[in-house]
Structures are given as C-alpha cells and as structure tokens.
Amino acid sequence: MSKENELDEVERYILNTIKDVNFGSVEVTIHNSRIVQVEKSEKRRFETRQPA
Fold first, then answer.
1. Residue 35: band (very low, low, confident or very high) from pLDDT cuts 50, 70, 90
2. Is the CB of residue 35 less than 8 Å from the CB of residue 29?
3. Which of 10, 21, 30, 40 has the smallest CB count inside 10 Å?
C-alpha cells in the first residue's frame, strides 16, 4: 500500500466512529486546518407498548 493511501490514526478513528453510529451524527471540529475534536451523537428510539 502506498503512503498516500494509508490512513492516519485520526482518519481511522473518524471512519470507525461513522461506522459505529446507526442513527445520529458525527461532528468534526477543525482549528487552523487541523482536526482537534470528534463528537458522536446517537439517537435510540424505543417502541412504547400499550397496557393490555
């Protein structure tokens, strides 16, 4: 694999985080052209059952 095709640690982390979220968002914060923070927000919904 060539050097330009290899992913660095931050890129791998972002891709893995995206794969991990079923319903939600991944926010990447950038300062001075550098990634400084990654936040994951995930929604989970549950069916409510009516009493019998």
1. very high
2. yes
3. 30
